[in-house]
Design goal:
This protein has a domain of about 55 residues. About 50% of the residues lie in helices and about 0% in strands. It contains three helices and no strands. The model has no long low-confidence stretch (mean pLDDT about 80).
Amino acid sequence: MNIFDRIKSGWTTLKFIRVGLGSLILYSSISEGQVPGIFLGIFFLVFSLVTDGVCCAGNACYSPPARKQNQPDIDNTVYEELGTK
């Protein structure tokens, strides 16, 4: 997928918040002249722009529901009494 397509897609409320916070870090660091903060702000801003921000975006980690196994009905459970001392 093209980088510009990644930036244009997946805009949710959470992505707006992440981009806003990355921009805030970057703006604050530039205004204060903090070089490590500028790098940190650039990192968070770029990371928030090019990722979806969720682990399982696009069903990447989708697993189908487990098949029902042939288990006996729980109401028909037979209990065995253990010996007492």
